[in-house]
Amino acid sequence: MDEPATKLAEVYGPVFTVYLGMRPTVVLHGYAAVKEALIDRGEEFAGRGSFPVIDYLSRGLGIVFSNGESWKHTRRFSLTVLRNMGMGKKTIEDRIQEEALCLVEALRKTNASPCDPSLLLGCAPCNVICSVIFQSRFEYSDKKLLTLLHYFHENFRIVSTSWIQLYNAFPYLIHYLPGNHNELFTNFTEQKKFILEQIKEHQESLDFNNPRDFIDYFMIKMEKEKHNKQSVFTMDNLITTIWDMFSAGTETTTTTLKYGLLLLLKHPEVAAKVQEEIDRVVGRERSPCMQDRSRMPYTDAVIHEIQRYIDLVPNNLPHVVNQDIKFREYFIPKGTAIFTSLTSVLHDDKEFPNPGQFDPGHFLDESGNFKKSDYFMPFSAGKQASFFSSISRGKRVCVGEGLARMELFLLLTHILQHFTLKPLVDPKDIDTSPLVSGFGSVPPSYELCFVPV
């Protein structure tokens, strides 16, 4: 919707209404309007809007597409558990570093031969989530892991197609027709089976005094609240919450990494400068860690620029207003759907000159120091906070934002510490346009060689 939205904004200004099917939807375009709604007035705009194809699957449960008390309790509980786990003997950073080394080993086994990196790049973030939720990880050749990744990859592609936009506009009509929404429902059923298997195993070995992972914590909470008829801690909510954490925690990081490597193939001079910075700050003898990031401004700028340039979720997830409000000079009734154009913020030409160009300089000052930007909103509007911080500027900021930032930095620096990325075609012939761009921007398929340094 972004190009049409930009044209409409030129005519009608930063706040206007469009009809998606029968539903009026208010579009907020540009940094000032998006910030005012999601940050300055975050409480009023904190409702989750309808996304019918996913609503059919989640039934108002989980974290991403729930609302009201259910959302508040599930989100608060999830953040608390994740904070507890982050402070444990093995921190989240330790888990990511271990997984990064497993990824390096798997890439080494490609023997510098041409390969499509999609599945291998997905294994690492997926295993990090597995370690948090199940206290276990899978070998990269494990059929269960590869099947699970295939479903997430396909789901992201399907929800980004125009067919799903049509489904969301006319759900009662399209639901009963053949189409790729049925493929999405089948994938969800299979993923649910996998999650249920893990829960059953946990039920058999649960120790109430010694929770091992997210499932244990949730099941202990379920037991404590079993007599409370209003409790949100139910088996159905556990399944949907795990599905949410997997979907958000695996596919967004995987897609960003896959797109990031494609951009580095297109711009080998940028990859070379990152490698030079890794050599200078980290060297070859130890693994990169999060403490290194403050001394690696160029690498930090490159990762920010990848996220800005690819514009992963162009129109954010839909919001609704929780009450009747006056916004600017407009009256917006309670329950009205709100679309915030993140593209209009990430590609603002005053903040980012030549926004259509991939340029790490967008996040560097004249001295080469990292330069923060309030316009950097790849995860919706939220404080650039730790994954374990429940305080966020935007009420609906991505729960896993800190985890994603940590994974992108550690996985990318580990890859570039060990390998030079070799394209199969001339860099100038590489097309970085998304394959499809609807709900998300899906990168094109490509192959490359990971040549050991």
Automatic annotation (TrEMBL):
Protein's UniProt name: Uncharacterized protein
InterPro entries linked: Cyt_P450, Cyt_P450_E_grp-I, Cyt_P450_sf, Cytochrome_P450_fam2
Keyword set, alphabetical order: Endoplasmic reticulum, Heme, Iron, Membrane, Metal-binding, Microsome, Monooxygenase, Oxidoreductase
Any one GO molecular function term: heme binding
PANTHER family, A to Z: CYTOCHROME P450 2C70, CYTOCHROME P450 508A4-RELATED
Chief localization: endoplasmic reticulum
Keyword GTP-binding appears in the UniProt entry: no
Cellular localization per UniProt: Endoplasmic reticulum membrane; Microsome membrane
GO cellular component: endoplasmic reticulum membrane
Positions contributing to heme binding: 398
Keyword Oxidoreductase: yes
Co-factor(s): heme
Topology in the lipid bilayer: Peripheral membrane protein
Organism: Cnephaeus nilssonii (Northern bat)
Family stated for the protein in its record: Belongs to the cytochrome P450 family.
BP-aspect Gene Ontology terms: organic acid metabolic process; xenobiotic metabolic process
Entry superkingdom: Eukaryota
